[in-house]
Amino acid sequence: MIQNRHTVAAIMFAAAFGTLTHAAATAEVAIGSKIGDVASARDMQGNVRHLHDFEGQAFVLLFVGIDCPIANLYMPRLIELEAEYRARDVQFLAVYPNEPEAVDRVAAHAYERGVPFPVLKDFGQELAGAVGATRTPEVCVLDERFVLKYRGRIDDQYAVATRRPQPRHHDLTAALDAVLAGEQVARADVKADGCLINRTQPNLTTEPLTFHRDIEPIMQQRCQECHRKGQIGPFTLTSYQDLLDNVEPVAEVVRQRRMPPWHADERYGSFHNARRLSDGEITTLLSWIEQGMPQGDPADAPPPRNWLEGWQIEQPDVVIEMPIEAEIPAEGVLPYRYYFVPTNFKEDRWARMAEAKPGNPSVVHHIIVYMISPGRASLGGDNESGFLVGFAPGSDAVKLPPGAALRIPKGAEFVFELHYTPTGVPQTDRSSVGIVFADGPPKREVFVNFFEHDDDLFIPANDPHHSQRATFRFPSDSTLISVLPHMHWRGKAYHYDIEYPDGTKDVLASIPRYDFNWQTTYQFAEPLEIPKGTVVRSVAHWDNSHNNLANPDPSRNVEEGLQTTEEMMLGFLTYTTDEPVVGQLPVLKPNPFIGAMFKRLDKDKSGYIELEEIPKPMRAALAQEGIEFGTGLSRLGVEALMSSQ
Questions:
Q1: Is residue 105 predicted with pLDDT exceeding 80?
Q2: What is the mean pLDDT of the chain?
Q3: Beta bridge partners of 408
Q4: d(CA 54, CA 142)
Q5: In whole angstroms, what is the distance from residue 210 CA to residue 217 CA?
Q6: What is residue 27's predicted lDDT score, i.e. its pLDDT?
Q7: Hey, what CATH topology would domain 443-579 get?
Q8: What tens digit of pLDDT does each residue of 204-232 get?
Q9: What distance lies between CA 396 and its chain's CA centroid?
Q10: Architecture label for domain 308-438
Q11: Alpha-carbon distance 163 to 168, whole Å?
């Protein structure tokens, strides 16, 4: 009976998503029609964006295709027009309706062309059907009430067989000017020339498939890391029944390539931790659903994955916890918290694996564990970030190549940096870090470094496509293991280029749809040999506009800061170097003023003083010392600042 119920569900799902038959051509939509609120698409983070959720005096839907030469010719013009009409409160939307174009390719296409306005993937051609668009490039202009006022070409400069030096008819701008003036559009339906929208669905296989033989291996390799007991997935996918119970959401996110989470452009770099499903795996899964989801013979199942309960790494040699149990209130935006824990190591230890583990995953957004030497060293400096390991949803534990290890200096302290997100009820947390040691000093020492923006970080209010650059030069012959970009809620894209001493250039990694919710370390399949003097250059983009659903406040200029309401641009690099092993981390002489202040005010001994705990007279004194306290003070931050003065 269960099998019959799910077979019916599979047939209904396949029909709804067009896997049984090709989607019908878009019906004619008359000029003057009001476009309903049901019209929607998904943005590059996977959010559903209803057309009526956008705001403006007019709207321009630009239907574009990755491989359409005419659409590509017009893209610079469209970007110029958007900048011109943005001041007149016109909202442009780049809509990609071609079914075979994966969201990763869409994001990369828009990133490489510098598209500053929202980019939408039109699954099932919902938006195209709602406005009657049939080709790329084709534009539709709506007024503030979402009434269709114009549909057709941009102008007459480019067509399938025509390239004019200048257009003779400026159809789009004429339509926009008329709509903004409250006038009738003179030519409201001008046929567009270009590429027909491709509605072709995946070619599903008719070869008989079963869960145990064909699907379970995919679940093990691509899904169970997160979708198993005790991990961050909202449901488990460790059995046939698990998948049957969740087949509709699984099929949707797989077909739309929203899961597994992976945000790097597949054209650049080869990463051994890539979670992306291949085209073949997607076809296999969707074909199996259409075939009624047969279970098959359990004897065909692969051996079960031997997941270590609670850890991604091997059984840790040592587990170090936060010194106290943190209390998280029911609501509010919390500043970062810092907890100092002595290791009491009597000699240098060498970590070949490390994992930061949240005690309460429901409230821990991220953990970073730093290490500092006695005397509370500041972070940063050549080859020394003090970084040990981090955790964020979807992040990977540190698993270093054979013969490489990260040094933990004797007598070091660990600093737990915690970012908590309230859930509506009071919670507690006591996170920890687990370490697997190497037997002794390795052949190659590992360094985790980061480099920041070349200029002061400043993101103007309401800027949808702000960019800044950063540069790092390798001080010695090195072997690059991984890269990790880090920004906050306004982060949009991050790109790594590399230039070798002989002038050769390449792309290390490109993340055209950065997502703060998934802090991914991109681990190269084969570590890269890096000669001394090699330069890594990065460019980051932020969306500080109201169209960024995660933006805390688009009306304010944004500068660098620890809180997620502020911003960062950190390009982490994990590498080994051929130079001899260095000595201890830099050591600072303890500052008695700071020690006394924290002893009196830091009630929970967390290493962080909340703003309300700082007496007002002391705030003035701190300001005179040049100490910016914002929402509070971290001991580590204050000592680093004072040491630099």
A1: yes
A2: 85
A3: 349
A4: 12
A5: 11
A6: 60
A7: Jelly Rolls (2.60.120)
A8: 888 999 999 999 999 998 898 888 886 77
A9: 14
A10: Sandwich (2.60)
A11: 12
CATH number (3.40.30.10, 3.60.9.10, 3.40.1380.10, 1.10.8.1310) of 23-196 reads 3.40.30.10
Q: CA 635, 332, 607 angle in degrees (round to 5)?
A: 15
- Distance, in Å, from the CA atom of 58 to the CA atom of 76, rounded to the nearest integer, reads 21
The position carrying tokens 């830099």 is 586
SS3 495: strand
Burial class of residue 153, CB neighbours in 10 A (0-12, 13-18, 19+): buried
Annotate 408-458 with DSSP letters as a single string: E-TT-EEEEEEEE---SS-EEE--EEEEEE-SS--SEEEEEEEE-BSS--E
Q: What is the 3-state secondary structure (H, E, C) of 548-561?
A: CCCCCCCCCCEEEC
Bridge partners, 491 (sequence order): 542
Residues 6+ apart with CB under 8 A from 221: none
In the chain, domain spans = 23-196, 209-300, 308-438, 443-579, 592-643
Supply the pTM of this predicted model: 0.79
| Beta-bridge partners for 634 | 608
Q: Which residue(s) pair with 537 in the sheet?
A: 471, 497
- With tokens 């309903």, the residue in question is 36
Q: Tell me the per-residue pLDDT of 580-604, one tens digit each, with 9 for 90 and over.
A: 444 433 333 445 566 676 677 776 6
**How far apart (Å, rounded) are the C-alpha atoms in residues 192 and 465?**
29
- SS (HEC) of 163-220: ECCCCCCCHHHHHHHHHHCCCCCCCCEECCCCEECCCCCCCCCCCCCCHHHHHHHHHH
CA 223 – CA 394 distance, rounded (Å):
11
- Fold identical between 23-196 and 443-579? no
- Long-range contacts at 10-17 (CB < 8 A, ≥ 24 apart): 10/247, 10/289, 10/290, 10/291, 10/292, 10/293, 11/290, 11/292, 13/247, 13/248, 13/251, 13/289, 14/286, 14/289, 14/290, 17/124, 17/201, 17/251, 17/252, 17/255
List beta partners, residue 632.
610
- Higher-confidence residue of 119 and 233: namely 119
Question: Do residues 314 and 436 lie in contact, with contact meaning Cβ atoms separated by under 8 Å?
Answer: yes
Question: Are 538 and 470 spatial neighbours (Cβ–Cβ below 8 Å)?
Answer: yes
Residue 55: CB atoms within 10 A of its CB come to 11
Q: Helix, strand, or coil here: 88?
A: coil
Q: How large a percentage of the chain has pLDDT more than 70?
A: 84
pLDDT tens per residue, range 484-539: 999 999 999 999 999 999 999 999 999 999 998 887 889 999 999 999 999 999 99
Q: Which residues pair with 511 in a beta bridge?
A: 494
